[in-house]
Amino acid sequence: MRDRDPAAPPVSRRVLIADDNVDFAMSLEAILTSVGHDVRVTHDGRSAVDVAASFAPELAFVDIGLPGRNGYDVARCLRQMPETATCALIAVTGWGQDEDRRRSQEAGFGIHLVKPVDPQQVIDIVHAGTTARDRLKRPPVSAGIRLASR
C-alpha cells in the first residue's frame, strides 16, 4: 500500500458535530464543509446518537455538556453501536482539568479539545482521519485556542 501524496487534496470525511452552542457548531460545520467534508450537526445528546446511527460518521466532535444526554454517554453509546464503533471521538468542551480528560478517555474519546479551539487544529484532525483505535492507544490530547464559544 502506497502512502498518500501529501500534495493531494484531503479525503472527504463524514463528520458529526454535537454541540448545544449553535454558533460554535455552525462555525465548525462551515469550516469543515468549506474544505470538502460531509458534516451533520446536532444540538443535544439524544439526536447525536440518532444521527450517528444513520450517518455512520468517521469522526465525531462531541461537547461534554450536551442537554438530554451528556457527551460521556454519547461516546459510550457510539462505541457500542456497530455503525460507529471505530469512529474517532473528539471531546470539545470548556472543561479542561486532568479529571475531565481522564473521564473523556474512559468514555471512549481519543482527543480532548478545550474551547475555544483552533480551527486549523480541527481541520488537521479531520484530514488525518485517524481511527479511534489508533487514537485510543495514546492519552487524549488537550488543546485550547481560538474558535468562539460561550
Pick out its properties.
150 residues, alpha/beta, Rossmann fold, disordered C terminus
Mean pLDDT across the residues is: 84
- The level of helicity is 25-40%
Largest sheet: 6 strands, parallel
Strand order of the largest sheet: 2-1-3-4-5-6
Q: Based on DSSP secondary structure assignment, what is the total number of beta strands? A: 6
Can you write the helix and strand succession as a string? Answer: EHEHEHEHEHHE
Residue ranges: pLDDT <50 for 5 or more in a row? Answer: 131-150
- Please report the first level of CATH classification, the CATH class: Alpha Beta
Question: TL;DR of this structure?
Answer:
39% of the residues lie in helices and 18% in strands.
